[in-house]
Each structure stands twice: as C-alpha cells, then as structure tokens.
Amino acid sequence: MTHTSVNNTVRLFGAGLRALLVLTLVCGVIYPLAVTGAAQALFHDRANGSEIRDASGTVVGSSLIGQRYDLPKQNPDDAEETARPDLRWFQPRPSNGLGGNSVNTRYSLILSGATNRSGDNEELIRWVTDAKKAVVRDNSTASYTVEPADVPADAVTSSGSGLDPDISPAYAKLQVHRVAEKNGLPVTEVEDLVTGHTTGRLLGFMGEPRVNVLELNTALRDLLRSGVIPGG
User: Fold this and answer.
1) DSSP strand E in 46-93: where?
2) The model's pTM
C-alpha cells in the first residue's frame, strides 16, 4: 500500500513537472516570441513605441506623448522657477504632465491626469484666463494681432491625461506668425508645414482634425537645420 502511494506521488509529481515545463515553454517562450514577431512584422512602428525621428535618424520622442518646449531655467537648482515657453517652437496644450529632467529636457513625464476641477472652479477659471492672456500676448506680432475670441479651447485647457501630443489646426495656425517671426521664415512656409502635418478625421467622420506638435516641430527643426526654405 505504501509502495503504491509512493508510486502515485512520484507519477503525479512527474506529470506536474512536465506540465510546468511545457506551459513555461509555450507561455513563457513560444507565445511571447510569436506575438513579438507578429507585432514587429505587421506593426513595426507601433510595436517600438511610435517613435519619431528627425532628419538625421535620431529618435526625438513618441508620437503618442506630448513634449514641452521651454527655455532653459535661469537657475537650474530653483525648483520653484516657472518654466517659460521657447517661442521659436509651436507650443502644446497646457499640461502638468509634461516636464523636464537632466537626462532629456524635452521628453519626460511627471504625472498623468486631469485637473479634476469643475467648470466654475475659481482656480481653474484663473488658470484659463491667465493662459488666454499669455496666448494673445505671445502670439501677437508686429504684423499680426491675436484677438481673444480667436483663442481655441485647447490653447488654454489641458487634456484628460495631461499628455496629449496633438493640438487643433486652429491653435497651430494661431501660432504660425509668431513661429515665422522668431525663426526668420516666411509665413507661407510655416503655414505649409502646419497644413502638411494636419491629420484629418479618421475615415472622414470620426474624431477631430489634429496636429501632432512633436512631428511639426521636428519638421520645423529639420527645415531650419537644412538652411533651405522650400519655394524660397
């Protein structure tokens, strides 16, 4: 009886061990390799993080996550110093989720989330009011005046995640004159950049037209580095 019990225990242990090895091989090796291979073959760009590269082939970020374009801090050790936008570049939506660090000052995350404030919250109203004044001030040039009524909602409000990489075509076009002036470019050429990087509605009716800020600024930087102005 004892001998039979031992044999059964050994047999069950062996079966369990074989099942563990097979499942480890299938679920831990074969399946991940198959999924990874299929992803690389069918969705190579997305499988690698939807990377955006500049003209030199350098990865500058992901098309799925926004970046800030700020001037360097005057005092890097001052954590309370407010970041100032670098007005040479198209600016993304306001966000507390985009920040900088010493490794890559243009691509780092602090947090993700909405403000969680109601529409009549006094602090939110002050944020929006201040942001609107800044948009009007920063984007008005000697030859172009931004009217408060022209400022779109996405220019003064953050997205639900705080990491939205896109802005509306209206906000992108509002920034054209300022970007052209700061970089010494013809307005028409900057307008063409915006038009060329505007994505329409999915299938023609889903979602809203949008402009990926990182892709647009990468194209702008490549244009400036080349020293060649198309059509110029």
Assistant:
1) 51-53, 59-62
2) 0.76
